């Protein structure tokens, strides 16, 4: 168990460092010179001496490896420098908006888990029925719609025409429902399919067949054996989804004008505020490690086979 | 039987979709680029079956031309990533060892960053436009498949016939081409086809943010973003391109599902 | 199953915790709702540093801080913090007498020393203000006594008082507002001003609450409070107005013409359009590609269908413009022949210059070069995009190819600075900047106006005249110089004026005494009332 976790953690840490290289490299490959961008953003006229002294000050003329290591050390202490636009610390700017995105993503997460477990298990047990077909078709149709568009349709119909929920913005729990629902919809079909197909597979496994032969009640079989069997795969997928939720939140936040991290990052991208992007990538990387580690831990706890098999690739 | 019906009817729809894109110039009732300010924001009519947009351009014609852009980019992404994923996957899976380790760790990095964020950062770095959007989508799409191929190759390597071929001294390259690629290729093609729908969604998301195609080209995501201003007064302008995207994605997803069930009911 | 439910429970708890955060956010309205106005704004107001630019919002800076002198309705300079002033006969120094009843919102009094401190901190950071001649021209500030300061200039500068009245950077911050480092280029400690409003509550990207300054030296605002809600999306603003969350949407920056008209058509609101405030112009780059050719510029002037654009893109909300500045602006009453819409003439001009349309070709060519215009625009601006998309399609008819490059704000600005364009959208700034400041940018390196004239044969002469007109202290000479400058600009066809921009507002019927300010970036909230 310990070895397995250590191995997984090791490969995730490697991925994390890879991401820091991408985050760092980003600012070197862009067509816009960060120093020049800084001058323009602050409406300071660009002069060669000014640029040179700023480069000197910021250490842009030192060897890349030196720059990277200083940057990394700063990044590890959560110091990503100052945003060009607001001139506040990038970390503060990100954290300030983070709880909004987290609320959105967490609500969507709960919606995903509850809806897909309900529909997935139900449709697997009632396989082939009309209701199974109808509910799945409905959800799959919704999932084919681009989330940003669906968001507008919801805003138009639910909020504007019916006046049921607040239109846009943030403030109360009612504000969270539409955006979180829109966000969740994109992921739900995948999980329904996953749950349904792995349950169907699980149902035919010897121990389940045996339990049924023994006369164990069907509901108990589902709960004890089948659901337990699909959990590891489900948990691992959900961990991957956490990152996707944070990414998908961006476009939802834009449409619903919620000032969360996602929208902030998109705006920073438009403003070429690269320190913010760097900080965000590193943050996502950190979260990725945490989510995946937790998922591995949960899987190993649920299913002893995972511990022994070990190879997570 | 049921599977067959699903496969046939969804293939027909996919073919119709492709035909619509190819024959757009003949199907479109008007020039999709011709503006006519005096006729802007018109409702449905015989001349303009789905009305006109904010520059008086024919909405139906633009929707038809939009199919070309989305499908063309999505299919090119498919072809290009197919080769990249095959190359990386085969290399990692067959050579193994340090090559495998390095390539898979690179895959880890790409997988750790959410697709949309990654595409956004790349387009942000390179600037908008159709070419850069294409590059960004390729960069985020190859990785998952490369890993699947690598895992397939690794299990194939252990299969008896490859083992046998190796013992009798068939060269590595020949084993790859003869025994591994023919087995892996159709499965990956299948997976890629299933993924077409999500590529189209990603294209529309980036275009919606103004990072995709440039004016005056007709593209569904951009059409949605352009009609934001008219949501209250002319909601149809916003609804129609979205319906097009939804239908396209739905048809492609359905086709993918039907194909998968027909080929191998148990896979993935 | 148990594990799953505990897993769910943890998430449910975390969300409840997160939602708790949401509820306590305060969106307060005071006990008497009648005297509170809520309006929307596009962006956060920033730190409201009176001496710096973005992300500080102009309207908020104008609410909190006062200038020494202000720009009156009739264009005359009026007393503000200074009751009177005197110019030395050589025009090289001004002595100001300050009001003795000005109190900052922290209770401190306005003194000559504080004024000197403010001006010094701006002059020390002159690099940030290089576009503004007034900062460059100030030599030093002398304290004469408690309430008298003398500003010495390096050389005479006629628009000195006008530029002192600008919303930024020469307005006064209380001593307690200065940061520890002592210089406001590092930000401010607190937004403490002497203006009609006090910033009493603020949450970044969410709202700002301004309360009437009961100790204001001038006429006090009628409203008790103004709450500014930050709503970046136009649709959301319209919906907020519809639901009564806000009372007022002020400014053309917040609503596209179509949106303004959609609200107007509902008949539920009062709507208002201002007098022309500035000019929308398209500026050529005479140093780049095909627009170096004067005939191409002239042809495009004649192929420019203002009327259609104003009727259909701007929904008739603005008036067509043929001159760089509206005739009412200082020195701008000059008779110039208009370039009228005439496609035949445009085609003829192109033919004459050798831009021929080969049979079967869509676009004109000359010596193998295609007649292509590179036009970048800010992709966030729907109106600009529409104008250019229209031009793209209209100019295709006369064989001119338009390559549109929609770019994000930052890259767009960069591109405009590097001059990689043929044509670009560029509004003038309105009073009190126009005409002298806009004209002056034509001599500044890497400015849009600079690229407009740099490629001309008469560039040197024009630059010299612009240098002279700003230094001139003689009104007659200035008039003559301006006339010659405007004449050259017109003859060389380097700018295509589109329309005189207007500002507009939409408010619910509760509000009264609504108006616009002369300065287009100011919201005259002082006069507004709630019925």
From TrEMBL, chain A:
<keyword id="KW-1003">Cell membrane</keyword>
<protein>
    <submittedName>
        <fullName>ABC transporter permease</fullName>
    </submittedName>
</protein>
<feature type="transmembrane region" description="Helical">
    <location>
        <begin position="137"/>
        <end position="160"/>
    </location>
</feature>
<keyword id="KW-1133">Transmembrane helix</keyword>
<keyword id="KW-0472">Membrane</keyword>
<dbReference type="Pfam" id="PF00528">
    <property type="entry name" value="BPD_transp_1"/>
</dbReference>
<dbReference type="InterPro" id="IPR000515">
    <property type="entry name" value="MetI-like"/>
</dbReference>
<dbReference type="InterPro" id="IPR035906">
    <property type="entry name" value="MetI-like_sf"/>
</dbReference>
<comment type="similarity">
    <text>Belongs to the binding-protein-dependent transport system permease family.</text>
</comment>
<feature type="transmembrane region" description="Helical">
    <location>
        <begin position="276"/>
        <end position="299"/>
    </location>
</feature>
<dbReference type="InterPro" id="IPR045621">
    <property type="entry name" value="BPD_transp_1_N"/>
</dbReference>
<feature type="transmembrane region" description="Helical">
    <location>
        <begin position="12"/>
        <end position="31"/>
    </location>
</feature>
<keyword id="KW-0812">Transmembrane</keyword>
<feature type="domain" description="ABC transmembrane type-1">
    <location>
        <begin position="98"/>
        <end position="299"/>
    </location>
</feature>
<feature type="transmembrane region" description="Helical">
    <location>
        <begin position="172"/>
        <end position="192"/>
    </location>
</feature>
From TrEMBL, chain B:
<keyword id="KW-0813">Transport</keyword>
<keyword id="KW-0472">Membrane</keyword>
<dbReference type="Pfam" id="PF00528">
    <property type="entry name" value="BPD_transp_1"/>
</dbReference>
<dbReference type="InterPro" id="IPR050366">
    <property type="entry name" value="BP-dependent_transpt_permease"/>
</dbReference>
<keyword id="KW-1003">Cell membrane</keyword>
<feature type="transmembrane region" description="Helical">
    <location>
        <begin position="236"/>
        <end position="256"/>
    </location>
</feature>
<dbReference type="GO" id="GO:0055085">
    <property type="term" value="P:transmembrane transport"/>
</dbReference>
<feature type="transmembrane region" description="Helical">
    <location>
        <begin position="133"/>
        <end position="149"/>
    </location>
</feature>
<protein>
    <submittedName>
        <fullName>ABC transporter permease subunit</fullName>
    </submittedName>
</protein>
<keyword id="KW-0812">Transmembrane</keyword>
<comment type="similarity">
    <text>Belongs to the binding-protein-dependent transport system permease family.</text>
</comment>
<dbReference type="InterPro" id="IPR025966">
    <property type="entry name" value="OppC_N"/>
</dbReference>
<dbReference type="GO" id="GO:0005886">
    <property type="term" value="C:plasma membrane"/>
</dbReference>
<keyword id="KW-1133">Transmembrane helix</keyword>
<feature type="transmembrane region" description="Helical">
    <location>
        <begin position="106"/>
        <end position="127"/>
    </location>
</feature>
Automatic annotation (TrEMBL), chain C:
<dbReference type="InterPro" id="IPR039424">
    <property type="entry name" value="SBP_5"/>
</dbReference>
<dbReference type="GO" id="GO:0015833">
    <property type="term" value="P:peptide transport"/>
</dbReference>
<dbReference type="GO" id="GO:0043190">
    <property type="term" value="C:ATP-binding cassette (ABC) transporter complex"/>
</dbReference>
<dbReference type="GO" id="GO:0016151">
    <property type="term" value="F:nickel cation binding"/>
</dbReference>
<keyword id="KW-0732">Signal</keyword>
<dbReference type="GO" id="GO:0015675">
    <property type="term" value="P:nickel cation transport"/>
</dbReference>
<protein>
    <submittedName>
        <fullName>Nickel ABC transporter, nickel/metallophore periplasmic binding protein</fullName>
    </submittedName>
</protein>
<dbReference type="InterPro" id="IPR011980">
    <property type="entry name" value="CntA-like"/>
</dbReference>
<dbReference type="GO" id="GO:0020037">
    <property type="term" value="F:heme binding"/>
</dbReference>
<dbReference type="InterPro" id="IPR030678">
    <property type="entry name" value="Peptide/Ni-bd"/>
</dbReference>
<dbReference type="GO" id="GO:0030288">
    <property type="term" value="C:outer membrane-bounded periplasmic space"/>
</dbReference>
<feature type="signal peptide">
    <location>
        <begin position="1"/>
        <end position="17"/>
    </location>
</feature>
<feature type="domain" description="Solute-binding protein family 5">
    <location>
        <begin position="76"/>
        <end position="448"/>
    </location>
</feature>
<dbReference type="GO" id="GO:1904680">
    <property type="term" value="F:peptide transmembrane transporter activity"/>
</dbReference>
<dbReference type="Pfam" id="PF00496">
    <property type="entry name" value="SBP_bac_5"/>
</dbReference>
